[in-house]
Write a structure and sequence with these properties.
The complex is a heterodimer of chains A (about 350) and B (about 180). By secondary structure, chain A is α/β, with parallel strands linked by helices. Chain A is built from 14 helices and 14 strands. Chain B is an alpha/beta fold and about 180 residues long. In chain B, about 40% of the residues lie in helices and about 25% in strands. The relative contact order of chain B is 0.18. The chains are: A alpha/beta (about 350), B alpha/beta (about 180). Chains A and B meet through strand 1, helix 8, strand 8, helix 11 and helix 14 of A and helix 1 and strand 2 of B.
């Protein structure tokens, strides 16, 4: 077993990046995720593994540093929170277009605008539907625990390089700030320059005698060429949908009603499931772990067996659209949410189930 | 076994670190734990609280609205959290800085004069460990050897020379805890 620690979610992201053999972190401080860079600066991974940690002058600079480093095949990560992630969208779209791997962590806070610094899940649309311009998708992972904050960084790098695409961890202020027990995976060595050249033939690693110039770009002024780029991206997203779906089901076997929730909301719903079952209400929980690819068929087959579905999110109703698109129109699906940094309590969720689904 | 605890008081009383030491001791004893602090504007306003859950099973929600135990160390916390103790649950408070004593009739209430004792000892920083001792007397969630390991893990190495003081404070807390109302 790996090393056991009590850590904040944000600290787990930082430690996992070091252990995953990451080459560089570029970021700009913003609550509630500043502990990521604080931890890295205290831990000095440049001494431990040679990993670079750099505070950029802005989020726009951070994401473009990520773009540049990823273009050379380096394993790089950035983190921010909602307003900062909005600033990064141009760069993220360029990276999707240029097919560059990276991990981007969004520790979501309440919005819109500067909003608040308290936890929220209001950036679902931005993360899943493409926050920047153009037809692209990110692989979006939704960690619900500090352990997953750690594990999803490693998984994120694996997926980013497997598909040459940016991967987003869609977390929130509570998962970032809370401490839980974490089992850390063992250190993975950073790749040598030779390994990067061998593993990333697409990367700008310097002109080799036996190959052409590598050009990293998202620009193709010839529409036919740009359509080919789009078709290639869409084929890649289809492959991701076929292969990378992750989800968890709790108490779904005999469930008559169903909660669907991701991240922190899923943790709250798990407690609500226990409270409701103590009252004799047979309710289960379906937790998508990948938000793109969304577990369309899996959710549909579970929903088929229940009388009604309550989608619980810390937003005004975003993932509910994907749940509805997964199933027919004759299913009763309602939304319950709190916004702007308010976290719903488990008994509030049970009351919503009783009012909107069972009684409604 | 699952114990759901809220610890609340002023910033600087060691509320968050008390919770962290308890949680880390739980980790060392191979329990599941979660530590969910208030952060941001709430904390900057001078009050601090943390929800700590220690359990033998996987923990569901780290955010709660009802607690087995509330450890309340100022009046604002009493006003906010007295009502959140589950019926039959436990409330521990330090009468210093409390103008309105707890009024619930359906919970166990204990008082602990930790601020006075810490002042007498001339070492205000042990205040939170005295309170923790009082709690552990009633709810021995972690054994002393694991508390020791929890202290080692929670405190920076340069403060490890203070661990014996902290452990003494925990023992002191066990001795000065006073029952106010016992319902079960």
């Amino acid at each position: 077993m790996g090393e056991l620690r009590l850590m904040k979610g944000n600290e787990a992201v930082a430690e996992a990046a070091i252990r995953a053999g990451c080459d560089g972190y570029f970021g700009y401080p913003i609550t509630p995720q500043s502990e990521v860079m604080e931890y890295l600066m205290a831990e000095k991974p440049y001494d431990r593994t040679g990993m670079v940690v750099l505070q950029a002058e802005s989020e726009v600079a951070s994401i473009n540093m990520i773009y540049g480093a990823a273009g050379t095949g380096k394993k790089v990560i950035t983190s921010s929170s909602s307003p900062g992630i909005s600033l990064m969208q141009e760069g993220i779209s360029y990276m999707a277009g240029a097919e560059l791997p990276a991990v981007i962590v969004n520790v979501v806070r309440g919005g819109p605008g500067l909003g608040t610094i308290q936890p929220s899940q209001a950036d679902y649309f931005q993360a899943v539907k493409g926050g920047g311009h153009g037809d692209y998708k990110l692989i979006v992972l939704a960690p619900a625990s500090v352990q997953e904050m750690c594990d999803h960084v490693k998984l994120g790098f694996d997926l980013a390089f497997k598909y040459r695409t940016p991967v987003m961890l869609l977390s929130d202020g509570a998962v970032g700030q809370m401490m839980e027990k974490v089992v850390l995976f063992d250190q993975i060595p950073r790749r040598t320059d030779e390994e990067v050249i061998a593993q990333c033939p697409w990367a700008a690693t310097g002109k080799l005698k036996n190959r052409d110039h590598i050009i990293i770009t998202s620009l193709d002024l010839d529409p036919a060429g740009q359509e080919r780029v789009n078709l290639k991206l869409q084929a890649k997203y289809k492959k991701i949908e076929e292969n990378e779906i992750m989800y968890e089901e709790i108490h779904c076997e005999d469930a008559e009603y169903l909660f669907v929730a991701f991240g922190l909301s899923a943790r709250i719903c798990q407690k609500a499931t226990d409270l409701a079952r103590a009252k004799g209400i047979k309710v289960g929980l379906f937790r998508p772990i990948t938000l793109f690819p969304f577990p369309v068929q899996q959710i549909a087959s579970t929903i088929k067996r229940v009388k009604g579905v309550l989608v619980v999110e810390m937003n005004a109703g975003q993932m509910i659209e994907d749940v509805k698109l997964s199933v027919g129109l004759n299913v009763k699906i309602e939304h319950f949410g709190r916004f702007g940094g308010i976290i719903p309590s488990p008994d509030e969720v049970v009351r919503a189930l009783e009012q909107k689904i069972i009684g409604g | 076994m699952t114990e759901e605890i809220i610890i609340a008081g002023f910033g600087g009383q060691g509320v968050l670190s008390m919770g962290k030491i308890l949680a880390y001791s739980g980790v060392m004893q191979n329990k599941e734990v979660s530590w969910m602090p208030s952060y941001g504007p709430e904390m900057r306003g001078g009050t601090a609280n943390v929800t700590v859950i220690v359990s033998d099973e996987r923990i569901s929600s780290p955010i709660l609205n009802a607690y087995d135990t509330a450890i309340l160390l100022n009046q604002q916390s009493m006003d906010k959290f007295e009502k959140t103790v589950k019926p039959g649950g436990l409330l521990i408070y330090d009468p210093n800085g409390i103008s309105r004593h707890p009024e619930r009739k359906d919970i166990n209430i204990y008082s602990i004069e930790a601020a006075d004792e810490a002042a007498k000892a001339g070492f205000s920083k042990i205040f939170n460990m005295i309170v923790l001792g009082g709690f552990l007397k009633l709810k021995p969630l972690v054994a002393p050897e694991f508390l020791h390991k929890g202290l080692e893990k929670s405190l920076p190495a340069r403060h490890h020379n203070l661990i014996p003081e902290n452990e003494k404070a925990v023992e002191l807390g066990k001795n000065i805890l006073k029952p106010v109302q016992i319902v079960n």
